[in-house]
Amino acid sequence: MSALSDSPRKVPKSKIIFEGKNRTVVKVEYKNRSYEVSRSQDSVKILALRNDNRIALVKQARPGCELSTVEIPGGAIELDEEPLDAGQRELREETGLTARRWDLLCSQLLNSPGQSNERTFLFLARDLQIGPHEREDSEVEMQQYWLPVEEYEKGFYSGDYSDMASFTAVSSYLRKHQ
């Protein structure tokens, strides 16, 4: 742990201003300023890598940014679910893939620390087996692609892809394995 992450956390006083199905928005008073902060479930993203160095990508509508994005599979960690179990479930649901080998790439990617407490756990899944997907109703229009892992990184820099967690997983993999 670094000196920055070792410092004790002071929990600011907060007041709930909205409670939804997947998140709560609270008003936080901190150092004489007010912030609206989202309290969300943590999430997982899975870099599913074939033997030919191609990764599984899904294209899906993202209402939060009002775009369709191309990203690695992933989703919310359910209450009382371990991150690895969530990763295995999400990969199977969205792509039909299962994997024999799982490695943790990143344990606490903070997506937007100034606005949310959500952490994303990034996994590398290898030795893949293909089966039927188990998509939820909201995911039926999801499309799946395979792309060489290096092409995703290049596409991110050229503006073709914009999901930061996917980029972080790809970059982490490339840094460690090439």
Structure in words:
- It is a single chain.
- The chain has 178 residues and is of the alpha+beta class.
- The chain folds into 2 domains: 8-39, no CATH class; 41-177, Nucleoside Triphosphate Pyrophosphohydrolase.
- It has 4 helices and 10 strands; from the N terminus they run H-E-E-E-E-E-E-E-H-E-E-E-H-H.
- The protein has helices at residues 3-6, 83-95, 149-158, 164-177; strands at residues 13-19, 23-30, 33-40, 43-48, 54-62, 67-71, 74-76, 97-110, 119-130, 143-148.
- A 4-stranded mixed sheet has the order 7-4-9-8, sandwiched between helices.
- Helix 3 (149-158) packs across helix 4.
- The longest helix is centred in the last third of the chain and has 14 residues, at 164-177.
- The chain is globular, with a radius of gyration of 17 Å.
- The mean pLDDT is 87.
Write the layout of secondary structure elements.
Elements: H1 3-6, E1 13-19, E2 23-30, E3 33-40, E4 43-48, E5 54-62, E6 67-71, E7 74-76, H2 83-95, E8 97-110, E9 119-130, E10 143-148, H3 149-158, H4 164-177
Parallel strand pairs: 4-9
Antiparallel strand pairs: 1-2, 2-3, 4-7, 5-6, 5-10, 8-9
Which features characterize this protein?
3-stranded antiparallel sheet; 2 domains; 44% strand; Nucleoside Triphosphate Pyrophosphohydrolase; 4-stranded mixed sheet
